[in-house]
Amino acid sequence: MGPQRGELLRAELGIATFADLLHHYPYRYSDRSQITRIGFIDPRAEYVQLQGTLVNIIEEGEGRKRRLVATLYDDTGRIELLWFQGAQWMKKTLKQNERYLVYGKISVFNGNINIAHPEIELLSAETASPGRQPMYPTTEKLRSRSITNRSFAKLTQALFEKLKPGDVTEILPPEIMNRYRLCSRYQALKWLHFPDTEEHEQVARHRMKWEELFLSQMLIGRLRLQHTAQAGWRFDKVGDNFNNFFKEHLPFELTNAQKRVLREIRQDTGSGKQMNRLLQGDVGSGKTIVALMSMLLALDNGFQACIMAPTEILAQQHFSGLSGLLQEMGIEVRLLTGSVKGKPRKEILQQLADGSLRIVVGTHALIEDEVRFRNLGLAVIDEQHRFGVGQRARLWQKNELPPHVLVMTATPIPRTLALTMYGDLEVSVIDELPPGRQPIKTILARDMQRAKVMEFIRREVDKGRQAYIVYPLIEESEKLDYESLMEGYGQVKVWFDENRYRIAMVHGRQEAGERERNMHRFVKGEAHVLVATTVIEVGVNVPNASVMLIESAERFGLSQMHQLRGRVGRGAEQSYCILMAGSKVSDESLKRLKIMESTTDGFRIAEEDLAMRGPGDMHGTQQSGLLKFKLADIVQDSGILEETRLAALHLLTADPTLALAQNQPLRYTLSQQRKQAHWGKIS
């Protein structure tokens, strides 16, 4: 391949080496043994392969509408071929009155069939009947420079002619290959590109999926070994703070799930190893009480504790909640965010440094260099997917031994995703709601029922409750969404007389100060209705709010709707979530809405969400250090995932440092993968 085309491959697809080419897998295979006569093309067919003579190669149109047009004919008819990109390049390449082999997707324009950007090459003995062909992912730019499926197939074929089985390093240990009946790496790669049979393709695909998932489980397993080997502060005793709070100041009796999680935390923090625990619990399940009691455990052992939240309003809420719970015990809690300045800020920094302030709540401000603790023993991180790996890791540097870390999330994580994203963390789950909470009733409504819905909300407000009305905000249509929010706000004012009801509005275009003020009006009960975009998704706690109306609910994802629904049902009163859908709703959107209507189980919703959307779209995966899988799909391949997890555990138990000779290729591969994946110290 010449330097120009080589550079194009590098720039467009990151293919620079033989290994890159071998791992550029076909996504399907097409039968190229059939040649269709032009006069017999079925307009309903998707792809077609033709042979014919090329004539009338001309450029048409001006500026952006410029295109290259050519006619291909045989003895039964003619068809137009079009190129919108790379027209000049193609014009130089194509030869008038020569016979060509053409393959492409047919389309119909003004009653005439044509093919845009076909694969095209001069007809020769070699190209006359290509047979079964691998189809490779490519780009418009490559196609316009005649780097087509055939080019990839030829390149890869030429490479396999040079390769011997020994040239492809086998990275899986022989014992694993035998136990799981996996074909060799060389054979898998060859069959993936050029399978003789469908069975060979399946065997090859299984082997390479297995390898991808196994490597991810090995990385996670080694990270877990590092965590368990990391020395940590030992919390030996359960003292007065913990016991006093448990006996005298607990606002409600702990659920069995909360007690179980506290036992797990006590075990971790008393082991002499650093705790790295992920605490999952649905919205309102009582994670904050568990976090507070863990912090009191730190205080009982002479340490300080902090809780870090992603936004000022969530930090403010934690601060208010913890201060209220600890007030009678005389334990001071202070709030450190970006907006705390001047004398109060200096005072907090001084108190943290000299140890007189033992619990601090804050935002990213806590990880700034100027914040120094005298003896930080526990760091609680709330809604951790909102923090980058580097930000979380900076908490490790706040003491000579890293503090214990408790990571909390209200986004239930399906088991398969937890195994690939958070497998290095111990996982605790709170799967019970505190006593006295009633399940939220979810109702699916249509636009034509709006009057009925608004009257219902007004009745709830007249009982002294509050309501959220949330509008979608999708970046691509931000202007339209903003307009519909403003229009909706106008409609709400029609339903809720301003002389009698107070309405607040919160959205992303507001100044931060105005947004915070409006939010606080609602939190304090000064506003009856909050009209908002999804900025209120995480963390707002208003026990008096009993109705959540989600407008254009068909445009929301499952996990997003579940998070929004969790804003209500936080008090003892019956709460409602109303999903307002438009008149035209796709089958997939209707399926999502029906799932929401049928269950409030966050884990079931998360599993359904993962199955519908796939792992790439799930919340927070961008920062997780999750390896990019080329073939494996953690939903469809959950069986392989379980297999590879057990295999990785087994191997690391037998050879934790991969020192044995048969594990050296694997050790080297993992060191390369680790560099690419940027795995951080905390989750």
Q: What does this 3D model show about the protein?
A:
By secondary structure, this protein is α/β, with parallel strands linked by helices. Among the domains are: 34-129, Nucleic acid-binding proteins (OB fold (Dihydrolipoamide Acetyltransferase, E2P)); 240-430, P-loop containing nucleotide triphosphate hydrolases (Rossmann fold); 441-599, P-loop containing nucleotide triphosphate hydrolases (Rossmann fold, 3-Layer(aba) Sandwich), CATH 3.40.50. It contains 23 helices and 21 strands. The strands form 4 sheets. A 7-stranded parallel sheet has the order 11-12-10-13-14-9-15, sandwiched between helices. A 6-stranded parallel sheet has the order 16-21-20-17-19-18, with helices on both faces. It has a 5-stranded mixed beta barrel with strand order 2-3-4-6-5. α8 (198-229) crosses α22 (638-654). The longest helix has 32 residues, at 198-229. Keywords: ATP-binding, DNA damage, DNA recombination, DNA repair, DNA-binding, Helicase, Hydrolase, Isomerase, Nucleotide-binding. Belongs to the helicase family. RecG subfamily.
Number of strand elements: 21
Portion of residues within helices: 25-40%
Spans where pLDDT lies below 50 across 5 or more residues: 617-626, 678-683
Termini Cα gap: 43 Å
Here the CATH topology of the domain at 240-430 equals: Rossmann fold
Would you tell me the structural class of the helices and strands?
alpha/beta
Which range does the strand content fall in? 15-25%
Name of the CATH superfamily of the domain at 240-430: P-loop containing nucleotide triphosphate hydrolases
Q: What's the CATH architecture of the domain at 240-430?
A: 3-Layer(aba) Sandwich
